[in-house]
What we know:
With about 300 residues, this protein is α/β, with parallel strands linked by helices. It has helices at about 45-50, 85-95, 115-125, 155-160, 180-185, 195-200, 205-215, 245-255, 280-295, and strands spanning about 25-30, 75-80, 105, 130-135, 165-175, 190-195, 220-225, 260-270.
Amino acid sequence: MAGVPTFATGPGFLGRRITGIGPSFTVAGIPLDIGVTNRAGARSGPAAIRQASRMLVDGDHPHFWTDVGGMAIADMGEFEIMLGDLPGSLALIEQQARPIPHLIAMGGEHGVTLPLLRALRKRLGEPLALVHFDAHADTWDESFGQVYGHGSVFYHAINEGLVDPRRMIQIGIRSPIQRGIWDWTIERGVRIITAQEVHEIGPAEVAARIRGVVGRDAPAYLTFDIDCLDPAFAPGTGTPEIGGLASWQTQAVLRRLVDVSFVGMDVVEVLPAHDVSEITALAAATVIWEYLALLGRPES
């Protein structure tokens, strides 16, 4: 079949040209990584994810049979940030996100999720349900003295009323964590499925628990820290933790979230300098592709 070969695909996500806000879905990169606590370099994540997405341009989704390439998706390029100014960057990210109807963000560090949730909360007028894939709970009250470090995202999101913690579920958690932080998170109503539990109960049960917590009607946000995956599947990240999910487990869970009312999502913490053969970037691009296939499936 004639067409543009994979290696010649355009520079935008799924080969899109860099334009403006899309009619249905808008992809944007957020090159922020000044709040990280271990390896730096996630500012280069959006470019790497775009590059890896060239593998997903041609063909339908093999489960939903969604023609993702035919969906109304725009890539608007990178958000602006304030160099060296973390609170200022968060405010600027929120400002840029607010007018976008359905944003798919590529980080950057996990701290970018906070202003994206702030923007959605103001636009929708109600707290969001949250589906959070990660190795880390990210509910510390500060990260080594930095109030808005990437380990404190959901501490602020809960305290600011951006999310409903009773409709918030975390999947893949396994990093060292102080007992007080764990207890604070659970006491707020957050459900946690550790990575070990995912391995033991399987994707179908994990998806059932997610749907049970989030419900069918609440507007929901998906945030996917790539370190949720085991380093064997995602070595290119800033804070890797062993014992994580396999790529296939993630796909199997996401494909079962057909009753969740998603209104936006992000994939964060891709660090190309520590990647191997683009496998981390490809995993991140595929998570976005799975999300788009889920929302654009023919029967939806």
